[in-house]
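Reopening this one. Same input as before:
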Amino acid sequence: MKKLRVFESISIDGYFTDAHSDIGWAHADRGDAEFGEWVSGNASKGDALLFGRKTYQMMEAYWPTPIAAREMPKVAQGMNAAKKYVASQTIRPTWNNSHLLQGDLLKSVRDLKASGGPDITVLGSGSVAAQLGEAGLVDEYQFVIIPIALGGGRAVFTKRAELRLLEQRAFRCGNVVITYGT
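Same output, byte for byte:
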């Protein structure tokens, strides 16, 4: 069975977006080449990607562009080549290798996990990540903890979750990557 992983950049106080739905703080360039290489390697590991509508539209607007190819060529290549699933009832995905999940999200993800192929990573997509976590479908959470406190916003978890540490890595820029299993 495939693994389902949730990948989120979060503040040190646990939010993936601030109170105004801004995520710009999570993508500030902190000038750390080692972290940049880690991001490139993580993006090219071959997982299928799962997005909610808002995150999909944001990613679709950036990664297929010449700017993305110039600024982050390895990440852009990985994002564009990956199989992508979109949880939405209002859009039709047009980005290459994108597939719309039809019907019930939880049933669709259970079916995906049971099928063959690569593991699946939910990128951002806080509402989707929360629903899948509540349903017990998430196998791992990978957080990039950004050294900023937001004082409020939206959190990944909507109820208590006990996790076990699988990996951790700190970078000079202050970002810490932590992977937890469920």
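So the earlier flakiness isn't reproducible anymore. For the record, The first helix runs from residue 33 to 43.
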